[in-house]
Write a structure and sequence with these properties.
single chain; 6 helices; mainly beta; 18-stranded antiparallel barrel; 14% helix; 451 residues; Porin
Length: 451
């Protein structure tokens, strides 16, 4: 649903529903940071970024006098990754690799105009610092009367229910399992919306006129989201028509029972979808001279999630299971494992660079949001009520015995927030998570609201 306005009944209920309003869980990294309209590794690019940053601060000091609502914040998020030397998918030497993201974020709002921009300085061990500047959002909301409104511009549009996975998020497609995620980047769209006390709907033309894209975020589409409060339950419906996936249709709901329990579920049907597979694992062969990881078209996919949360005082316990047709099956991982083992056995026969290159190509399978179709998440959280929150998570992949353990704690004051987390991957020796080239990850995220 649009972020502009929620029906009054939904606003009251939202504070009791983790499926729609809980903070993002910490997660397995692997997704690249958003791209940018300019990239500067030179002094000229750095000077440009600094000038824009100074301009942002100047806006903050002058905005009040001109009636513009302005906010700015600094974020520093260093990450330490411990690689697994024994992993069959580790092409390097299994060392610790560190990287860090520093953001200056500016938000402006005046009337129906909203804008959000980020200046980013990111560093990685063994690489050169990079500087980026991009617009997360820039859009205009308007009122047509009679409960109708419109949106034009670049906007974040997140839909659906779920904590670790949201099948109905057919436009934004946020990775809910990412580590210390940066602010989301919206998509260009034209939208028509309607809101009432217990009903809301949005019809959005995303990337109008762009045609087919290389991925979902680049693909032009027509998307619909409907919401209705029915006998105390939140009911959601989505539909999307795109070049890559054809027709997508989904339903979801959330029910609150008493003061302690809430339940949620959602399912999405996809006419088409694609999986990135290693053609050598599927069709035979040992070594490839070019990247063998190719997207293979599939038909009639399903995504679904179901969960329950118990809350009592400062404690909450969440159980959630989901299925993602876009992810690998156990059999697909076994075929890729077998190929990687055969390639490793060529040591001393084939060039070491050829073996390492093929292993690195196969390791791209670990970039997926979900490594396997079937997932089970258990999450215990504690909120002291004075800004300190802590959680412990256990993610299981029942079909292969994999597991991911995550611990996190955060403290939020009036203008600053500090979050720390630790994640360990493991499970049965032949599981996807146990064989991951990433063994352990730790992170810190500090955010300071300047104004």
């Amino acid at each position: 649903m649009s972020c502009r306005t929620l029906p009054a009944s939904r606003v009251h209920r939202a504070s009791r529903q983790s499926s729609g309003c809980a903070p993002h869980p910490a997660a397995l990294p692997g997704q690249a940071w958003p791209g940018s309209p300019f990239h500067a590794s030179s002094r000229q690019g750095l000077c440009r970024a600094l000038l824009i940053g100074l301009a942002a601060l100047a806006i903050g000091f002058t905005s009040t006098a001109h009636g513009i609502e302005a906010n700015a914040a600094l974020t520093a998020a260093p990450v330490w990754e411990s690689r697994a030397a024994a992993s069959p998918y580790e092409a390097g030497q299994g060392t610790t690799r560190n990287h860090s993201r520093q953001d200056l974020e500016l938000r402006l709002r005046e009337g129906g105009f909203n804008a959000q921009a980020t200046l980013r300085w990111q560093t990685a061990e063994g690489g050169k610092p990079e500087h980026h500047g991009f617009a997360n959002q820039a859009y205009v909301d308007g009122d047509l009367g009679g409960g109708l409104g419109f949106t034009v511009g670049k906007k974040v549009l997140s839909w659906g229910v779920g904590f670790g996975f949201r099948p109905l998020d057919v436009v934004q497609r946020e990775n809910r399992r990412d580590v210390a995620p940066p602010a989301l980047v919206g998509l260009p769209l034209l939208a028509l919306e309607r809101f009432s006390a217990d009903t809301a709907w949005t019809l959005a033309w995303v990337r109008p006129g762009h045609g087919a894209g290389a991925n979902d975020s680049r693909d032009s589409s027509l998307a619909f989201h409907g919401y209705r409060l029915v006998d105390g339950d939140d009911v959601h419906a989505v539909a999307r028509l795109s070049h890559r996936r054809g027709v997508e249709l989904g339903l979801g709901a959330t029910r609150v029972v008493g003061e302690e329990w809430s339940f949620h579920g959602a399912a999405l049907y996809q006419r088409r979808y694609a999986k990135t597979r290693n053609t050598l694992a599927e069709n035979g062969g040992l070594l490839a001279a070019s990247d063998p990881m190719l997207a293979t078209p599939q038909r009639h996919g399903l995504k679904a999630v179901a969960g329950a949360q118990w809350t009592s005082g400062p404690w909450s316990l969440l159980t959630e299971a989901w299925y993602d047709a876009d992810a690998y099956s156990r059999a697909e991982w076994q075929r890729l494992d077998a190929l990687t083992a055969r390639q490793r056995d060529l040591a001393g026969v084939a060039p070491a660079s050829a073996i390492a290159g093929n292993v690195a190509w196969s390791s791209q399978a670990y970039r997926a949001d979900n490594l396997l179709r079937e997932n089970l998440l258990l999450r215990l959280a504690h909120d002291t009520g004075d800004g300190v929150k802590a959680h412990a998570e256990l993610l299981l992949t029942p079909t292969d015995g994999g597991r991911v353990v995550t611990l996190g704690v955060s403290h939020e004051g009036d203008r600053q927030r500090l979050s720390l987390g630790l994640r360990q991957l493991g499970g049965k020796p032949d599981s996807a998570y146990a064989q991951s080239p990433l063994r352990r990850i730790a992170w810190i995220e500090w955010r300071w609201a300047l104004f």
